[in-house]
Design brief:
Strands 2-1-3-4-5 form a five-stranded mixed β-sheet, sandwiched between helices. The protein has 224 residues and is α+β, with helices and mostly antiparallel strands. The protein has ten helices and five strands; from the N terminus they run αααααααββαβαββα. The protein is elongated.
Length: 224
């Protein structure tokens, strides 16, 4: 049965307008995005199939063009819309992060890093460079590795911090494995970077590990 034939209070779009987007299931959110189903399947049915096909919302959002466009009901236009929505979200979070003090509004930094790093299939190491008022100067991806590790060079991080005239920075990297717990190598690297940057009077305020939807703060966990 087509969604237009459902009771009005059960239709995803009307439910969203009445109760807010958070009230919708993942399949209903995908249905609102798709707008229409395919012959024999409603948009919600199709949404469930896409979630199963890609392993959830995260998998759907990080699907590449070829895989997404090959899925029933998606195609080039829907893929372009999805990519635009994801980029809009990333830029909006970037604006929020740049607008405030990274220490008094850590959620903006965490959300930005989570959205930026959570879907990477390889390890990426980033730095958020801050001025003396803890305002964001720049965010840079400095190193890229494999599924399980990446090589990080303290000299390059010190060089980039000096180039930005940064007073402090926040470190971040992802764990494609999906486990946010820091390894012993992560802890050792963080100490080495903290000590190297202290020599040029740059503070390390935190180190975030992003693993899927989860994230860990070294500062909050007592590792820094």
């Amino acid at each position: 049965m087509a969604i237009r034939d459902w009771p009005e209070d059960a239709r995803p779009r009307e439910k969203l307008l009445r109760q807010g987007a958070a009230a919708l299931t993942d399949a209903e959110l995908v249905a609102v995005f798709l707008r229409t189903g395919v012959p024999g399947k409603s948009a919600v049915d199709l949404g469930r199939e896409l979630l199963a096909r890609f392993g959830g919302l995260g998998g759907l959002c990080r699907a590449d063009r070829k895989a997404a466009c090959a899925a029933p009901g998606v195609g080039e236009a829907k893929y372009a819309l999805l990519a635009a929505v994801m980029e809009m979200a990333r830029r909006a979070l970037g604006e929020a992060m740049h607008a405030g003090d990274a220490l008094t509004s850590p959620a903006a930094v965490r959300d930005y890093l989570r959205l930026t790093l959570r879907h990477k299939e390889y390890e990426v190491f980033c730095c958020v460079f801050l001025d003396a008022q803890n305002r964001v100067i720049a965010v840079e991806e400095l190193f890229r590795g494999t599924l399980t590790q990446t090589s990080v060079y303290p000299r390059e991080i010190v060089r980039r911090a000096l180039a930005h005239n940064a007073a402090a920075l926040i470190l971040a990297h992802n764990h494609p494995s999906g486990v946010a717990e820091p390894s012993q190598a992560d802890r050792t690297l963080t100490r080495h970077l903290r000590d190297a940057l202290a020599l040029v009077d740059v503070r390390v305020l935190d180190h975030f590990i992003v693993a899927g939807a989860a994230s860990l703060s070294f500062m909050e966990a007592g590792h820094l």
